[in-house]
Structure formats: C-alpha cells, structure tokens
Amino acid sequence: GAVVSQHPSWVICKSGTSVKIECRSLDFQATTMFWYRQFPKQSLMLMATSNEGSKATYEQGVEKDKFLINHASLTLSTLTVTSAHPEDSSFYICSARRFPLAGDGETQYFGPGTRLLVL
Amino acid sequence: LAKTTQPISMDSYEGQEVNITCSHNNIATNDYITWYQQFPSQGPRFIIQGYKTKVTNEVASLFIPADRKSSTLSLPRVSLSDTAVYYCLVGGNRLAFGKGNQVVVIP
Asked: Residue B63 has what pLDDT?
C-alpha cells in the first residue's frame, strides 16, 4: 500500500516550453501533496505544499508563477514548469501524505521522480 | 522546518549490522521520526517511523531515547543492495531534508 506514481519519468524539452508533471496517489487519498527538487549530489529541497482545492504554499525563493501547481483531487497533483530554461533541469519528486491512520505520524510517501532536462 | 543532523557517510561490510544515528534537538512534542532510503535517480522509500522507544519492522529497527533528541536506525545484516543514502526526518508536514548518510556496503 501507499504507492505514489509520477508521470512522465523523464522529459527533455526545448528552452521556453512548458512541462507538466503529474503526481498520483494510487491506493490512498492524500490530505496533502508536496513537491521537491533535487540537484545532482544534493538533498531534496521542498518547493511547495499543495492541498486539494486550495492554492499551493510555496517555499521562500520558489517562483509561484514559474512552478504552477494544481491539486485537482485527493489523488492528483500536477506541477507545471512554465517557460523552462536549462537551469530548471533537475529531478522533481512529489510526495503524498495520507489521512493519518491509528499510530501513523502523517507519513509522506514519495513518487519515483521525474528527470527534467531543458536544452 | 525541523532540522536533523547525520554523519555524512559510512562504510560497512556485507552481513554486518549497521547503525545510523540522527540528531534532532528541536523536535516538537507531536513530531514523529521517519527514516527514508534513497537510491540514485529514485524517490525516497519509506523505511520506518516511530515516536518513542523502539520500533521494529521487517527491514529495520528504530531506537529513540526518552528525550527524543536523537534516533538510531539499525539495519540487520546489510547486503550490497542496501548501499544508498539514508535520511531521517522529523514531523509530517514541511520536511527539511538534511544531507543524509551515504551508506556503502562493501563485499
């Protein structure tokens, strides 16, 4: 249980185009979904927190107009990188936090990640 | 964001028990402690979670002292496939990933 998928797993695009990444919780409903970015040899950095039906909350330094987040349902969140540039090339990972079960500390379950390469 | 501190790296031989420590001095009263494993180009994988004392599952044990300011992940009899980065996190909301601990299992 607690499986999170991401699509696509990798994408190559030209500079200036927009790219959409989907994150789905497959076997549970997620109270909240999160988006992270990870550069090579570095740790994950939280970009934004997303709740179904409300606006995402972005971390300091993350441009909300560049990284558009839509949380359409309790099982789907999308991240759109608008007007992508080479410096946006990174590994994007989402996570989903399910409704807490008894004894559960609001665990986040992570997707497999999406590798974005902007040429 | 609650911060954690871990050793940067450690090596271990195959078949040995590996203990990875984590400091979280500013843990909040209602925070759980969660450990994840990450392989290159993959998302973090949940290993174990605990609040206090000891928790054990099929892959690991987690030891948490009474003051909860630290925790230790124990991996019994590691194999080469356990080579990965291990992260400890506290809380369940906005997680602050530290640098993690790169564990290398040597044949």
From this structure: 97
Please judge whether B46 and A91 are an interchain contact, meaning their C-beta atoms are less than 8 angstroms apart: no
Any CB–CB contact under 8 A between B28 and chain A?
A: no
- CA pair distance A62, A90, nearest whole angstrom: 14
Please list, in sequence order, all residues whose beta carbon lies within 8 angstroms of the beta carbon of residue B30, skipping any fewer than 6 positions away.
none
For the stretch B53-80, pLDDT in tens is 999 999 999 999 999 999 999 999 999 9
Q: Tokens at residue B10, please?
A: 């450690």
Cα separation, A80 vs A105, whole angstroms: 30
Is beta strand A10-13 parallel, antiparallel or unpaired with respect to A114-118? parallel
CB neighbourhood size of B7 (10 A): 14
